[in-house]
Amino acid sequence: MLGGDRFRARSGADLAEVFAAVRRGEVTARIAARLSLVEAAEALRLAESGTVSGKVVLVP
Q1: What are 2-24's pLDDT values in tens digits?
Q2: Residue 15 and residue 7 in contact, taking contact as beta carbons nearer than 8 Å
Q3: What is the C-alpha separation between 36 and 48, in angstroms, rounded?
């Protein structure tokens, strides 16, 4: 098992690779809906409903 410091370092490196892939356009996400923060409860219902294909995004 990895120690806490090693785990955090490895997780940070993995996350940096993911963000780099996003910047290069290699990773994308399908956005099903964008809702304001005041609609957070509706966003949660929608996300849990299983009726959308993609991510539900909260916009500040």
Answers
A1: 577 888 888 888 999 999 999 99
A2: no
A3: 17
Q: Which two tokens stand for residue 17?
A: 């690779």
Exposed (0-12), middle (13-18) or buried (19+): which is 39, by Cβ within 10 Å? middle
CB neighbours (10 Å) of residue 44?
13
| Three-state SS at 12 | helix
Greatest alpha-carbon pair distance for the chain in Å reads 42
Q: Rounded mean pLDDT of the chain?
A: 90
Residue 47 CB: number of other CB atoms within 10 A? 18
